[in-house]
Structures are given as structure tokens and as C-alpha cells.
Amino acid sequence: MTTISLTVNGAPVVAEIDDRMTLADFLRDKLDLTGTHLGCEHGVCGACTVLVDDEPLRACITLAAAMAGRSVRSIESFNDDPTMEVIRDCFSEAHGLQCGFCTPGMVITVRDIVLRGACADAAQIRSELAGNLCRCTGYAGIVKATELTRDRLKAKGE
Ligand code: FES
Ligand code: FES
To answer: In whole angstroms, what is the distance from residue 113 CA to residue 27 CA?
Structure first.
């Protein structure tokens, strides 16, 4: 067992964990933050994407013990995030989700893409989204929602 101190969604957390516990299990089972979804658990599907020190990272293949001193942000922390507010609206309008299983990881990745400006056209968006798999939508709605988000943020001067 290891004791770690970190920040989760802006709040300090100190916890005793199994050395082999993943960040995804830590968030879901220790902190009840079940918005981080688990799909493949092999680093392939992106459903478990969270931000660590503002960079997207796959929580299923990251050890919680490696998060000591880091700042972790899960989907639960974006309620008041202005960029995520636009993304939510655009996903809804462009039918960017069906079952919603991939959606927490997908929208965290889309937020990163639009904030980096890595969304010039549909081809770049598809390339940037290559690490996030969706079993439902066929991606057309997700790409459209990302383009809509890009255009709306630009219109707002962001
Ligand atoms: S559950 Fe982590 S990448 Fe699939
Ligand atoms: S909306 Fe169902 S997996 Fe993406």
C-alpha cells in the first residue's frame, strides 16, 4: 500500500492505495467519480480520458501512485467550464452522441483539440480524435459537433 497526496478536481486528496491500482479505478472506486468510463482497459478506446496537469491521459493505463503531487481533472469538474458548455451544446445539436458511453472521454479530448486549435478541418479533427473510439455514431456527428464548437468559440473571440 502507498499513501498519495494529489489534487482531484481542484480539491486536495490524500488516500491510501494499492500500488497497482489504476487512476481510473482510483477515481471510480475510491472517490465515486464514475463519470470516467472504462471500455477496453488497455489504453485503446479513450473512454477513460482525464486531464493530468491539463494534458489528456488514459486513466486505465496510468497508475494512481504515479499521480502523487499531480492535478487530476475528471469529467465531473467541467460543469462550469465555458468551453465545455459550448461543446455540450454542440454535441447535442449535431447528434454527437447516442449511448453516451464514449462521451466523457470524447468531450475532454475535443476540449483539448479546440483549445490547441488543432481543428482546422474535418481531416485534422478525425486525426486528433483517432484515440477515442465510439461504438455508436459513426463519427460524423462528433466531427460536426467539433467543427460547430470551433466556429462558435471563434465567433465569441475565444
Ligand atoms: S478504457 Fe482506457 S483507453 Fe479504453
Ligand atoms: S455514443 Fe455510444 S459509444 Fe459513443
So the answer is: 24
